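cache lookup: miss for this entity combination. No prior model stored, computing from scratch. Input as submitted by user K.M.:
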Amino acid sequence: MDFAFTPDQLALAETVRDVLTEHCPASALRSERLPAWDRLAAVGFFGLLVPPEADGLGLCLVDALPALEETGRACLPGPVVETAVVAPYLLPGVPKLASGAVRVSVVPPGGAGAPDADLADLIVVAAPSTRGRDGGAVVVGREAARLRPLPGPDPCRRLSEVTYTESTPLDRPLAPALRAATVATAAQLIGVARRLLEVSVAYARSRRQFGAPIGSFQAVKHRLADVAVAVAFAAPLVHRAALAVEAAVPDAGLEVRAVPDVGRDVSAAKAAAGEAADLAARAALQTHGAIGYTEELDLRFWLARAWSLSAAYGGAAEHRARIREALAGGDLRRYP
Amino acid sequence: MDFAFTPDQLALAETVRDVLTEHCPASALRSERLPAWDRLAAVGFFGLLVPPEADGLGLCLVDALPALEETGRACLPGPVVETAVVAPYLLPGVPKLASGAVRVSVVPPGGAGAPDADLADLIVVAAPSTRGRDGGAVVVGREAARLRPLPGPDPCRRLSEVTYTESTPLDRPLAPALRAATVATAAQLIGVARRLLEVSVAYARSRRQFGAPIGSFQAVKHRLADVAVAVAFAAPLVHRAALAVEAAVPDAGLEVRAVPDVGRDVSAAKAAAGEAADLAARAALQTHGAIGYTEELDLRFWLARAWSLSAAYGGAAEHRARIREALAGGDLRRYP
Amino acid sequence: MDLDFTRAERDFRAEVRDWLARHVPERPPSMDTPEGFEAHRAWEALLASARLSAVSWPEEYGGRGASLVEWLIFEEEYWAAGAPGRVSQNGIFLLAPTLMAFGTEEQRRAWLPGMARADQVWAQAWSEPEAGSDLAALTSRAERADGGWRLYGQKTWSSRAAYASHGFGLFRTSGARHKGLTYVMFPLEDVAVRPVAQLDGLPGFAELFFDGVYVPDTMVIGEPGDGWRIAMAATSSERGLTLRSPGRFLATADRLVALARDADPALADRAARCWIDAEAYRLHTFHTARRITAGEEIGPASSMGKVFWSELDLRMHGLAMELLGERAGTTPWLDGFLFALAGPIYAGTNEIQRTIIAERVLGLPR
Amino acid sequence: MDLDFTRAERDFRAEVRDWLARHVPERPPSMDTPEGFEAHRAWEALLASARLSAVSWPEEYGGRGASLVEWLIFEEEYWAAGAPGRVSQNGIFLLAPTLMAFGTEEQRRAWLPGMARADQVWAQAWSEPEAGSDLAALTSRAERADGGWRLYGQKTWSSRAAYASHGFGLFRTSGARHKGLTYVMFPLEDVAVRPVAQLDGLPGFAELFFDGVYVPDTMVIGEPGDGWRIAMAATSSERGLTLRSPGRFLATADRLVALARDADPALADRAARCWIDAEAYRLHTFHTARRITAGEEIGPASSMGKVFWSELDLRMHGLAMELLGERAGTTPWLDGFLFALAGPIYAGTNEIQRTIIAERVLGLPR
């Protein structure tokens, strides 16, 4: 039992944070579709989860989690989770995946579309959702796909409906990859929420009304405190889920660790992270007042990201319904 | 359209309020089981809804509503709603009902017990609930009933399980009486909530901490403002329900008024009033701090009443489930 | 107490419903685009042709002298019919009540009929960069000029200003804080207008820069220096009945319940709660209308309505976002959600409203 | 990062679970009745006989030197087994950490073993009638006397004091506000104790009246005048790990989910949320334990835990009240609800906690 990120895991996040601070500033969100991707590729980000035999680092999801949180913090555009997390699970044999030269997008089961599919080389399209069952998926090359843009709130995470002429069936199970994608998205949401909170605190310290910084008013303080609490208690659920996703597979070196219900842990993480980010977005808007609504303020990118990622890979209500069903089954054992 | 109480209706409430202020002070709640009942009887309170042919005033439920709210405001003990509202519907022929000489208690369908049954002369016992259907009821004389006290939060509204040896079947439909009882209880809850708010405001004005009255702190202000809002928007639902209960019956003098779904309106009133009272109770406790928990403070009587009446005639969740079902049926027409 | 509509009220509802069924256009483009603005103006003119753009005004100004209850009925029918948003909102519901209460007969005759027909469209201009929630901190000023005033300074969050023809707001003529503010109408043609794009990318607001714009005395409402009192009366009506009529929320609630019909019961339950809350707002408003008709002052109690409807609107649209997930953008709910997010902020933030309720309704100490 | 328990931790859990399964008594009467108090004391003595009353203490004081994680495991098993509330709570979880950090070795030897066996039961005495949330406003005082101090003044909300043998609290020896307060232990036998009945009619608290009670210097913890700093360290531990371990809420959440299993889905959904929140609190605490073990200061972040668990506890019990309706009083949930209602108030109200989070964690201005 050592429930804290290791120095290596934190150092990786620090590296990613530095890259993103330099190469994905808020101004880049207005002008570039894929800021910082090449730089992230250069530090090995897209090979973290790729097996060593395919030139990756063969790390676990939990190792990449703080780094993924940084991509949320920076509001990094592009199919990040799909390329860095889903692809190593489903397409580990695709050449150059680890180098970041291949971008992947995904239409999850029941999903409306694929994020940033126009920037992807390969698109994984899941069979229509069959409630809990793994209906399989196919891989579609970009040139064989027809994309129809879906309007949505997030200018930096554009969804497209995907139809296609040719496809290759996937021979790997979809469910573990989707669980990992859901947890990775939850980690990004934690990053988005933390950034929204930081920005709101900074604004509340500087903006003055009625002769005092608005951050000195109890209503503002308590609202932002509530966001801090929500984020603080959502994050460990996300970290646990990342461990559960891997621990559900027996490890040769250790005894088999008992994860009673990985899906339940994953849903708990996504629901809590999505709700924390939503609360952070509301609080950010209420703190900023009308200026928060303007296109001029960078805030809007993080608001949009909070909303788009909350809906990605299932919304909070959907995940809680799954948790409810799991609990109704009567197995209340916990991991750990 | 004239959605406000008439001077007559308000004058009646004023009379009841005066009686209760004098004869049902908080101190009486500690020492008496039936404070102010004789005085209320003397001003005709128990005959308000009794038909004129049985010596009553033959008024409508809405006429008595502000007066019923006063009984909640005063935390009046005894089976008030059962005697003043249910009995005129179900037992209009019982002699001396209008004079207040006969007290009635009720075990509603699915209810755990009868309130203050040991003080009642007659107990109406509904058949076990058959979800929406009127299973009928019987009347039991006090001497034929065996009472087993049920522990509960409210020392001034004690519930008893009722078993009996002899009973008389009721020949009147139970549903209209239960709807009226539910609305009357909702009106009492509004009264309880208003009193809790007043007491909390008074305490917040006088209690000082950190060198200022606690009512000057934004957190306290905003919490009490939320209570005021909840009460202000629950009350009209209760008033509408009282009109709907009567308007569902065609009136010779007027055209038939369309009440699409009386049960839905009644459930809306009870759910909203119960939740407003619950919010008022929480806010009262948080405002008073630890002293709010003490037996010495009168506050506890109103807290207990908020909880006991919230559960009486169905809790908020139960009523909202009924509303949900009604809406799922697709009839979204409103009254008026 | 009764809740039954009179024969006249029912007839009025039938007439409005019938007219709307025959005239409501397909959803026009956003009023914050040039073509959408013109489409909305044309719609206002069509409404005016049936004397339906401002039903509660006296006939001589273009209304039909409808009662408050009739106005509420109009609003219910209007939003239930899916009719377009009101591009004349600022004029009809904010400026007009002020002209009725504080303007001269000449001012009313000069401006109200054109407002009813949307010949002029009005922008409001309350806020300034350093005076958002704290209106008394305004610094824009009006300086005495021959037979009128010259306006200097900057306004922000001026809704509709990107395309409107006129505006109104407070300008400082003397004094500090609440004192010495003057209520001024002005044409926008001589004002520098910088549109401000919102989350949806469209300029729902603008910044206004005044560099000596001249307005004659006839454009001042009430006495110079009396603007704060006049504006507060308007703000009170803004927060009260006229800003957000129940009809809008009833229509939203109906659509939400339909959207949630086959949803997870936990979500359907939240929809049911919203639907009931919309009813509560409607009933509460009938009661308020009764009080106003009886000559009562509503005063700070209108803050309760502001808190209630703005949070209800946000809950409804937030729930719709949850129900629709990634498909929300293909429906009008996403735009509605972005609009609803502003509810707790504009027309006095909900924090300010709660403080007003606490201090002025409940009597808690400042 | 990993979440797997070591072999030793799993063995410890198995031992505790087994012992509890064999020894947990039927629900005793409330510890706020004379017979219930004695029953709870007897239970503490039985726990102590298995070195389970204070597992994290060093062996020489009656503990078994358990790690923080082991202590959390103990708590999970303890509450899952339905074991009684801890009548020694104030001593073991509030006073003992203070003695460990600020007491002398003599004080520890004098008091800890007896505390572990419940030979002495301790009441806390922080609040005063005019200093509830504002502890710095304390006026009770300690006056210098030969080889010790004489205590004067009044304390209130002293939990357990109706039946306890000893108490501890702050007394003013000089200065104003935070300065000049001294941390004093005292026997209750010479203190006038007025029990205060709670909502449930039982004296969970008492008022204490001091009229010159003499305590020797050995009953002062730390230096005279240094009490505020010492108490704040204890309050921080009160708010952090030791006041409300996750085990309590996990057990409640399990029972709640079972209670809601056949309930309306809207209620079952709320139960599911509570269950997950209890897990979140557990995981967060594992992380905190790791930080403490690594020598980090938790500091004001512990306020987040206080807000979270107290509101979770109230949501869980409030939901149970809704699920049970008028039958709640026939179950332990009603008492649990009344107890949970105090959560947002005691150990620093949640308003104060939120202000601490805002100012000291987020850095917002005072």
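stored under new cache key. The mean pLDDT of chain D is 93.
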